[in-house]
Design brief:
three-stranded antiparallel β-sheet, globular, 25 helices, alpha+beta, 13 strands
């Protein structure tokens, strides 16, 4: 194995007057118009996508469609309204829950009948399930029919077991909540419901079902609901659950090339240079100066002219800049809006040595708000002038520091990145011939991107980040050319040292991961009490790295490789801290009576020695999917332990080491499920690698485990 030993709407706010918080988000802003345009085209894009998929189908898929035309016509229609991965995820919860409640109600009702009338009440739901499966046998493709049958029998078993524990009222409430929960899922995600396409005669006519009645469409929808949800989950544009565990690459790039765009860039550039900015430091102008922003000397902190503002507007809402986001995010799930109170124009001169300009030459993160899940505030750096010297570097996109992603932005180049999460820095090109002779005139454009169902969080993120940016800019203006001892102290220590501390935590742990661990520790304490919370904390933090391994191996595209390595190492350390601390506590409590567990020590030494040797032979990057993700070419590995011809030595070693923990009875009795769960995740990922289970769209990215050849002592990594 060349992989590791397991693994990862518009914003509308009230207008507050010029210079107020309308600079943050405006009603009817260009961002609103952009989003409205996107929403108008959503269904057309979805239809075009379905046609493209049909064109790209293989012969087997076309054969299945020819054999089950009615099913696929219904499934395609249903899937059109279930594109949002969160909506589909909620359906995967509410639909089985509703079916379980219905079966439990039937079983409970059967138990209330006289025993002579019905001797085996628990058999009633299974009889119904068998009849249901028999009806669908010739209606569904075989693999889907088998999956649906397994789900239904599992729900029937759960209903038979649990019906005695719940009252008719509780089961009725569960069924009702599950039914209406599906409508809530559509409301949260902004997707139209499928049943709205046949509720009225006009809706059926518009949807091409004028000859069908409401009753027939409703019955069809009900009978096929579970297989329809399973089908949508498999064909969802972003695989549910797995896609949420993949650390994505959110650095986007484009170039403004149209005549109109170049004209707007020239107008902005000419205006900035006409202000005669000093070239011994940076000079800044707001697009719209928000409340609280200081006005400094020498043009610092004023607004741009109305003409420049007009060009700003055209660029911000233009197809080139917006296209970076519409290509990166599924617009059936996400919304985009401008964050106007952060936009600015600046002219950059040569950096000095004793001011806070140097903060940008060190690796840093711009903003502090990293704990807003699925919400992103993008800063877009747009160059209006030539540049051959200054590079913008992103550490975690690929294999830092060997292959840092670098952009030398010039003449319409624009790069966007997550303001609150992306680690980056600027430096000079080492080529002495690549020296800028003229000042750089750049724009900073800002957008917030968030799921439709999380609009309040998107608004909050935009507001908080804008306020932070204003305060940080005020501090920065006083440290560009510090004169007083306080400003010099702030420039040298407060800005630089704080930036360094924040960066180091993000580099080695990630503030999001720290927040997750803190939440996983706090919530069980609040809900279960301190004495019962630890096993829950262990469960929430011991297996995250395995899920990330499986998810990244499966999806592969748009992975932030540095973030992936950091995250899995962080959670693997947390997992082994649990294991080692529990084991040490058990040994200390029992060593006086039973002595040291020598066999456990031996198995750990052998197992983890084997796993560590395999990792050293591969190297860190190849251990963590460097080849699979396409960052490194395939390489033959002949070193120990691959020379022993042990299959998957890293995983085998890990399982031996874990078994060393498990055979020690005092440790095993404390949390009996912990080691079996670790081994189960190891085995699951090993099977994934062995059978090369990856997303169809990811095939061809990097070197897969299944395509690796093993001959004698040679090993492809």
């Amino acid at each position: 194995s060349s992989g590791p030993s397991g693994r990862s709407h518009l914003l509308r706010s009230r207008t507050m007057g010029r210079g107020g918080e309308n600079a943050l988000l405006k009603n009817n802003s260009p961002g609103d118009r952009i989003n409205n345009s996107i929403k108008v085209n959503e269904n057309n894009n979805a239809v075009d996508g379905e046609k493209a998929k049909e064109t790209a189908m293989g012969p087997l898929a076309r054969k299945l469609r020819a054999r089950f035309p009615d099913w696929y016509a219904l499934a395609d229609e249903f899937t059109l309204y279930h594109q949002n991965s969160f909506n589909v995820f909620l359906h995967m919860v509410t639909t089985p829950a509703g079916i379980w409640a219905a079966l439990a109600l039937i079983t409970k009702a059967a138990h209330t009948l006289d025993a002579k009338t019905l001797n085996s009440p628990n058999s009633v739901p299974f009889v119904l399930i068998m009849l249901y499966n028999a009806i669908l046998k010739q209606k569904l493709p075989k693999d889907l029919w088998v999956m649906n049958s397994m789900v239904m029998f599992a729900l029937g078993t759960a209903a038979a077991v649990a019906q005695a524990e719940y009252s008719f009222l509780a089961l009725g409430v569960t069924l009702t909540v599950s039914y209406f929960g599906q409508d809530v899922a559509h409301w949260l995600t902004g997707e139209k419901t499928y049943d709205s396409t046949y509720m009225t005669a006009d809706a059926r006519a518009a949807n091409g079902s004028a000859s069908s009645s409401f009753a027939s469409k409703f019955m069809e929808h009900t009978v096929y609901l579970m297989p329809l949800v399973l089908h949508s989950a498999y064909h969802c544009p972003e695989p549910i659950l797995l896609s949420w565990m993949v650390p994505r690459n959110y650095v986007v790039f484009a170039k403004l090339t149209s005549t109109d765009e170049k004209s707007h860039l020239k107008r902005i550039r000419d205006w900035a240079l006409a202000q005669n900015p000093r070239l011994d430091a940076t000079t800044h102008w707001w697009f719209e100066r928000p409340n609280g922003a200081q006005v400094g000397v020498e043009n610092q902190g004023y607004e741009v002219s109305p003409e420049v503002k007009e060009s700003f507007e055209e660029i911000m809402k233009g197809d080139t800049v917006m296209g970076m986001f519409t290509k990166r995010f599924d617009m059936t799930s996400y919304e985009i809006a401008q964050v106007r109170g952060m936009n600015e124009l600046y002219v950059a001169g040569p950096p000095l040595t004793n001011n806070s300009d140097k903060v940008f030459e060190s690796s840093h993160v711009d903003g502090p708000y990293r704990i807003f899940p699925f919400c992103y505030l993008f800063r877009c750096m747009l160059a209006t002038t030539g540049n051959s010297q200054i590079r913008t570097n992103f550490n975690f996109v690929t294999t830092y520091p060997e292959n840092t992603t670098k952009y030398t932005l010039a003449d319409g180049d624009v790069v966007g990145f997550d303001f609150n999460r992306e680690i980056h820095y600027i430096d000079n090109d080492p080529d002495p011939k690549r020296v800028n002779k003229d000042p750089r005139v750049n724009l900073k454009l800002h957008y917030v991107v968030y799921p439709k169902c999380m609009r309040p969080f998107g608004k909050l993120l935009a507001f908080l980040t804008t306020r932070y940016n204003v305060n940080a800019r005020n501090l920065f203006l006083n440290t560009i050319r510090p004169k007083t001892w306080r400003h010099k102290f702030n420039a040298k220590y407060v800005v630089l040292w704080t930036t360094e501390a924040v960066y180091r935590i993000e580099q080695f742990a990630s503030w999001s991961n720290v927040a997750y661990v803190a939440l996983a520790s706090l919530l069980p304490r609040l809900l279960l009490g301190a004495s019962s919370s630890y096993p829950c904390f262990v469960a929430l933090t011991s297996f995250v790295h395995y899920i990330m391994y499986i998810s990244v191996y499966y999806l592969r595209d748009d992975v932030s490789y540095g973030s992936f390595k950091r995250d899995v190492m962080f959670f693997k350390v947390i997992a082994y801290c649990h294991l080692v601390s529990q084991f040490a506590s058990a040994v200390m409590a029992n060593v006086a009576t039973t002595g040291h567990p020598v066999l456990s020590y031996a198995m750990m030494a052998v197992g983890y020695g084997l796993a560590s040797s395999a990792a050293m032979a591969l190297g860190v990057d190849r251990t963590y999917f460097g080849s699979e993700l396409g960052h490194y070419p395939p390489k033959w590995i002949t070193a120990f332990p691959y020379s022993l011809k042990i299959p998957h030595p890293m995983i085998v070693g890990g399982i031996i080491g874990l078994s060393g923990f498990q055979i020690y009875a005092p440790f095993r009795l404390a949390i009996p499920w912990l080691i079996p769960a670790h081994i189960a995740f190891y085995m699951l990922h090993m099977l994934q690698e062995h059978f090369d289970i990856i997303a169809p769209k990811s095939r061809g990215i990097g070197k897969t485990a299944a395509s690796a050849s093993v001959t004698g002592e040679k090993k492809v990594a």
